[in-house]
Design brief:
The chain is α+β, with helices and mostly antiparallel strands and 259 residues long. 20% of the residues lie in helices and 35% in strands. It contains seven helices and nine strands. β4 and β5 form a beta hairpin. The chain is globular and about 60 Å long.
């Protein structure tokens, strides 16, 4: 088996797994149905075509930079302007970076990598308004899915890495297996993308952690910022060394509760 490693980075991403009607939420990480759909689009498959070959892939994602949830709303009117359509609230992940891995047969993985470099249809990070900001393909490895995700260097943005310690613990979400038993379920395993008969199944997932090193940490090396401030500001109260962004809930309805 071979593993294809991808990176999903962009100003906005949206990974809905149960969004309908006026509120279009986003999950905290890419869903399997969205990634299978992206691979099918790269291959040039139509929505009504079977996807059995892609369902064989084992899927995993590493959350390198979780981003924050932002909300937008859209309005629309009929073509003859006789009536207005309801407001729709759409939620996105801003400034997020994910490493996605898919494991499968060598021939299929090679074909997917080539298709992603020259896609038949435009590719997006969940919605059409979310184009990728970096090349999608990181490479192909003979490692299994989980070791491949764990051994890859940290892909967060440079400005984000500089605000973090020398060792980081990242969230890892993979399809369950013998070595990684399921501790959660998600209904995002696609069976059909046919617009007239979309179908999704439950899949077992394993939530784990992954340790990575941060070569851009500010507190690495001899002349750490902490010691420099302490020696140069005797008798004065030092200012905060960094202003961390407040933690933001991934619950798309959290904004409503704080109004």
């Amino acid at each position: 088996m071979t593993t294809l490693l991808l990176q999903f980075a962009g100003p906005l991403q949206a990974w809905g797994t149960g969004s309908r009607f006026a509120y279009r939420s986003t999950g905290p990480a890419p869903s399997k149905s969205a990634v299978i759909g992206l691979l099918a689009a790269a291959l040039g498959q139509r929505r009504a075509e079977p996807i059995e070959d892609l369902l064989e892939l084992r899927f995993g994602v590493r959350c390198d930079q979780p981003g924050r949830v932002v909300r937008d709303f859209q309005t629309a009117r009929a073509l003859d302007e006789s009536y207005s359509l309801p407001l729709t609230y759409r939620f996105y992940l801003s400034d997020a970076v994910f490493v996605v891995g898919v494991e499968g047969r060598h021939g299929l993985i090679e074909a997917l990598a080539e298709a992603l470099r020259r896609p038949a249809f435009p590719l997006f990070l969940g919605r059409r308004s979310c184009p990728p900001a970096r090349p999608l393909v990181l490479g192909i490895t003979d490692q299994a899915l989980v070791p491949a995700l764990e051994s890859l260097p940290w892909k967060a943005a440079a400005w984000y890495r500089r605000t973090k310690p020398a060792q980081m613990e990242l969230d890892l979400i993979v399809d369950s297996g013998l070595e990684h038993p399921a501790n959660d379920t998600m209904q995002d395993a696609p069976l059909s993308f046919d617009p007239h008969h979309r179908r999704y199944a439950l899949r077992g997932v394993h939530h784990g952690k992954c340790d990575v090193s941060n070569p851009d940490a500010r507190d690495r090396g001899e002349g750490s910022t902490t010691r420099a401030v302490a020696s140069g500001m005797r008798g004065a109260r030092p200012r905060a060394l960094r202003h961390s962004r407040p933690e933001t809930s991934h619950d798309p309805m959290a904004w409503w509760e704080t109004r």
